[in-house]
Amino acid sequence: MEPTGHQPFRFQDQRQERVYRRLRLIGDGPASFFRDACQMMDSPMSLQSTTHIVGHLLREVESGLRAVLKPQVPDEGGAGEGGGHRQEIRNILDNLSIPADYVVSRLWLRLPGEEGLDRRAHRDALFAPRPVDQDFLLLWNSFQTILDFVLERFEQTYLDYHEILDQLLDIQHPTRADAQRLRNQAPNNLVAYGYFFDKLTSVRWLGPLADEGFFRRPTALEREGDAIRFVPWPPARYLARMAPDAPETVADIILGIPYTDNISVLTDLADAACAIPAEHSVRLMDLAKQWASGPYAALMLLPERMGRLI
């Protein structure tokens, strides 16, 4: 939940806004890292360590981008500094039909290693932070050029990534490795996760998904000025459907979910609790008291679900 009085950053640059929107197809994490970098670069002299912090943020964005976009091919990474990293980039460029001699391809392949983002993020012994100089501004502009071009190609082929989700949905006996593939190689956003979890019908996925932390981060509510949006959380809907068939496992998972004041999530969890036999759902009563005493507990369908649970 954002702090009271927080004013969200508003993009003034159309390219940055376009990149941010497309990064949300990759995941909210990379999109947020990019937005924060844009906010810092909007007032680059406000902090002495701007180049280091922005360098870290850009590394996180680039890493998340590769994790989702890399194709399912053996890593032929060459030896030496940045070899595997650069080979991943080459595989992605090839998969997106971006020629290796394009300017954006050459720019991206310069990022790995000590002369790229790593050097920007790491401190230089105990010397003063590196300044926002012309060299850093050139890197900042190049990074945006890379994202703008690559994400446009990705958006054009976005539905192809649903093939990964369909392959996972067809697995009859999923393992933790399958859950890792979902986490690392499929788009991490509500659209993709909604597609996967709403189609998921097997209780066998509960264990692998729990082991990989899919039930540890409920979606937070969103604030925009005075408006509040209760964002759905697809894993909670899946738990509600699986509760009758695996009540003890679902109860264990719910007990490990951090508290949220997002009523959409709490309503789905209450649905799951209602579908669990009393000998298991009684373990959730202390947690249900927290749900019922939250700041928005009187809204939407939660009161009716709590009545049913009682």
For the structure shown, list the relevant keywords:
two-stranded antiparallel sheet; globular; 2 strands; mainly alpha
Write a compact overview of the structure shown:
With 310 residues, this protein is mainly α. It has 17 helices and two strands.
Q: Can you offer a commentary on this structure?
A:
With 310 residues, the chain is mostly helical. 58% of the residues lie in helices and 2% in strands. It has 17 helices and two strands. The chain has a two-stranded antiparallel ribbon. The chain is globular. The N terminus is likely disordered.
% residues in beta strands: under 5%
Q: Outline the biggest β-sheet.
A: 2 strands, antiparallel
The geometry reads as: globular
The percent range for helix content is 55-70%
Structural class: mainly alpha
Mean of pLDDT: 84
Which regions are unreliable across 5 or more consecutive residues at pLDDT < 50? 1-5, 72-82
Question: How do the helices and strands follow one another from N- to C-terminus?
Answer: HHHHHHHHHHHEEHHHHHH
**Rg on CA atoms, Å:** 22 Å
Tell me the span between the first and last alpha carbons: 29 Å
Number of strands: 2
Strand order of the largest sheet: 1-2
Tell me the number of helical segments per DSSP (H or I, 4 or more residues long): 17
